[in-house]
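SAMPLE LOG
Freezer: B-3
Tube label: C17
Construct: single chain, 153 aa
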Amino acid sequence: MADMERFRSLVEKLEGMISRVDEGITHIKPDQDKWSLKEIIGHLIDSASNNHQRFVRLQLGDLNNFPAYDKDIWITAQKYNDMQWKDITALWSSYNRILLKVIEHMDTNALGNVWIIDDKKLTLELIVNDYYRHLDWHIGHFEERLREIIEGR
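STRUCTURE (predicted):
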């Protein structure tokens, strides 16, 4: 896949950011309806785990009715704020290193395979690119939340 360097760069960028954060502030929610830093990384773990399934299954053929997930329900159910920062960040980093390998070795003939959901056809290539677009957006989200927490202290 042509964008491997960009994908790797995004993973490394967030790894660098999370390594510099004081664990003592990672549970803080600036507002009840805003995620903490732990919850943002937790959401990115959920995204990685769901997309891992899509990346592998779509290499085997088209997907019909493979479930999506409700991000807020998953965050609430998993209680990321009660977990250790080092555990959450290690899992996120490891999972994303594995995804980079999955994508690097992806059969290019499978990139056109589709996931059919809600009468839409999403190709494997689009899903992979969207995963990293989503990660990039949450890197900005993480930076903004960190700033909010620091300024609110």
